[in-house]
Design brief:
Blueprint (H helix, E strand, L loop, with lengths): L10 E5 L3 E7 L13 E8 L1 H11 L3 E5 L1 E3 L3 H12 L8 E3 L6 E7 L2 E6 L14 H5 L3 E4 L1 H5 L4 H10 L3 E6 L1 H6 L2 H4 L4 E5 H8 L4 H10 L4 E5 L5 E5 L2 E5 L12 H14 L4 H15 L12 H15 L3 E3 L4
Parallel strand pairs: 1-4, 1-9, 2-7, 5-6, 9-10, 10-11, 11-12
Antiparallel strand pairs: 2-3, 7-8, 12-13, 13-14, 14-15
Protein name: Carbohydrate kinase PfkB domain-containing protein
Organism: Enterocloster citroniae
Keywords: Kinase, Transferase
Length: about 325
Amino acid sequence: MIHEKISKGNYVIAIGAAAFDEYYTTDTWPQEGGKTMVEYKEDMIGGMIPNAACVFAGYGIETYLVDTLKSNSRKTEMIVEDLKAHGLHTELIRYRDDIPDARTIIILTGRERTILVVEPHKPMLDIKDSELDLFRNASYLYTTPVELKNIRNYMEFLDDMKAHQVKLAFDIEESTVDTCDRSLIYRADVLFFNEFGFRKIKGNRSETETLSEMFEKGVEIATITLGEKGSFTATKDGSFRTAALKQDVVDTTGAGDTFNSSFITYLLMGKSIKEAALFANTAGGYSVTQYGPKGGVNELSFIENLVTKLDQSYGRETRWDRKF
């Protein structure tokens, strides 16, 4: 139940699609026009934003998920049951008869995976007047620009959130840059890129020029995850690299989602950006040693103990560096 009046709270609202992840394995990924044999493994409940939301909830951060799912569907029932089991608030989920079940096809090939998202063709999302207080009093909205654009009158909604000091965190992938204007992307307070997404938005410019443009538009933090090379984090005051540890990779699905949620969690706790990057690197690194999209869902103390243990063993540290 949504309360009529809600005070400013230390909680996150995540906006994004939940889905059934269909896992397959193959030895090699074919070239365009080619053919390969795949072996079905299992179905798991995932979705990029819901995975991140479950990581938030695992750390004890109160988290709401906003999505539209097919009504009267057993798959929807299973998705919602799973979200609730992971501690998410599901009151903001909508249900429609005229949309398909949400599906994602994940092909595992050795140390990597390829993700095929089946277009859900979801309707525009209307934010109800009765929900506005909940949105306005969140600490963060965590989503993608594509999901935000699906909110009716999204720029007005975004202006309203900014007026109420709600922070906005975007997960940016390469495809996002093709479909969303930079004017929208740069409205975020925190931007999370993988290396392909950042190179796409950078184009032929230098890293310094690209980051400077972001910070001039109001972005506070930009972070680029670099897989086994760690991560690169920048603010208007400087930038630094955070090293990663070599891991026995089982499944990289959800590693970026884990990194992002872990980073924001530490910011919510009042930790420094440097501490947030180290915590997020550790959490994301651990997640790839687990199978499934929610391998990064852990208690806060577990990851914090892991940070301490790994730093004592390997002497990890961050270093200042303008280039990634």
